[in-house]
């Protein structure tokens, strides 16, 4: 059983909203059209994209940020500081609560890493598609490639540590989906989901972002906090704590990572250890995120 307590993620989501501001601004500018009147961010987290949309949209238009968790939504409300209308609604409740929250046909709906938390992902995509104005676009930021940050051989433990973390996270993700009440498999890709929802001109654009070594102190600290979060989530011995940098509670003990790898991670993430990642000059960030877009008929 893997359940996510979103309120425990609120601080971390707010931090990502701030650190991803540049990426969000670039993507928002590429998606918004001059004629757009209403843009929506569904499963908005800390409100990073909602804020970027508000900055990219023409003057006098509306941006609505929607999330199912009140504590997360509060972070979005603070982050967007009045530029965006924030509404509580869940994709698990069908189209109507979302339609009420938005209150007008949407020209652009953005949903990043949120539809994969809906119990029935195709129903969620169908619901979002039904909220579009004629010619409106639904953009789903889902998937891409696993981020690469560490050298293959770290000089501690078995080489390939980061690959094994990705694999463990993939198994954790499958268990998370299995644990959602009323979960429905979606055994096809996001472009098919958009097409099945009746959208046309379905395309995918993948964006590569790179911060090469050596990272700045800020980039390095963010990377290490990200690893800490991912390892804690996969470590049955980690005591779930509230607030920034930690989060997912475990109901039953399951070994996602080997004891050996957990011991290596403990050394890499301990500032007192000689192997602390923060001492390395060869950390980098290479990431590829995919955006799948479909358009409603005119
Ligand atoms: C992984 S976070 C992504 C946040 C943000 N979109 C981003 O890309 O950084 C998933 C977000 O979706 C929200 N969420 C999860 N299930 C949802 C649902 N059924 N309806 C609406 N929002 C949901 C969570 O509260 C969380 O804010």
Quick synopsis:
This protein has 298 residues and is an alpha/beta fold.
Task: Provide structural commentary.
The structure is a single chain. The longest helix has 19 residues. The chain has a single domain, classed as Rossmann fold. It has a seven-stranded mixed β-sheet, sandwiched between helices. The chain has 298 residues and is an alpha/beta fold. It has ten helices and seven strands. It binds S-adenosylmethionine. S-adenosylmethionine (SAM) binds next to helix 1. InterPro entries: Methyltransf_12, SAM-dependent_MTases_sf. This is Methyltransferase family protein. Pfam families: Methyltransf_12. Keywords: Methyltransferase, S-adenosyl-L-methionine, Transferase.
Secondary structure layout plus pairing:
Blueprint: H1 6-19, H2 21-31, E1 38-42, H3 48-56, E2 62-67, H4 70-80, E3 85-88, H5 95-102, E4 106-112, H6 121-129, E5 132-148, H7 161-179, H8 190-196, E6 200-211, H9 217-233, H10 259-268, E7 285-295
Parallel strand pairs: 1-2, 1-4, 2-3, 4-5
Antiparallel strand pairs: 5-7, 6-7
Helix pairs in contact: 1-4, 2-3
The structure holds S-adenosylmethionine.
S-adenosylmethionine binds at residues 6, 13, 16, 43-45, 67-69, 72, 90-92, 112-114, 117-118.
């Amino acid at each position: 059983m893997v359940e996510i307590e979103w309120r425990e993620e609120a601080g971390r989501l707010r931090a990502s909203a701030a650190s991803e501001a540049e990426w969000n601004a670039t993507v928002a500018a590429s998606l918004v059209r001059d004629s757009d009147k209403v843009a929506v961010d569904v499963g908005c987290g800390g409100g990073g994209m909602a804020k970027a949309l508000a900055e990219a949209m023409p003057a006098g238009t509306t941006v609505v940020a929607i999330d199912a968790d009140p504590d997360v939504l509060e972070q979005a409300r603070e982050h967007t500081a009045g530029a965006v209308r924030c509404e509580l609604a869940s994709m698990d409740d069908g189209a109507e609560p979302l339609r009420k929250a938005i209150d007008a046909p949407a020209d652009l709906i953005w949903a990043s890493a949120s539809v994969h938390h809906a119990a029935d992902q195709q129903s969620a995509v169908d619901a979002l598609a039904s909220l579009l104005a004629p010619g409106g676009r639904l953009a789903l930021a889902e998937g891409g490639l696993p981020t690469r940050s560490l050298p293959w051989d770290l000089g501690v433990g078995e080489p390939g540590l980061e690959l094994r973390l990705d694999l463990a996270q993939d198994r954790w993700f499958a268990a998370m989906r299995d644990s959602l009440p009323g979960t429905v498999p979606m055994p096809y890709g996001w472009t098919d989901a958009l097409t099945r929802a009746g959208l046309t001109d379905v395309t995918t654009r993948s964006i590569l972002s790179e911060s090469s070594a050596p990272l700045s102190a800020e980039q390095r600290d963010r990377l290490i906090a990200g690893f800490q979060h991912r390892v804690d989530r996969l470590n049955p011995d980690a005591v779930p704590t509230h607030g920034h940098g930690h989060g997912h509670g475990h109901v039953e003990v399951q070994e996602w990572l080997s004891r050996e790898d957990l011991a290596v991670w403990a050394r890499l993430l301990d500032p007192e250890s000689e192997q602390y990642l923060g001492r390395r000059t060869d950390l980098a960030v290479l990431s590829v995120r995919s955006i799948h877009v479909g358009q409603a008929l005119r």
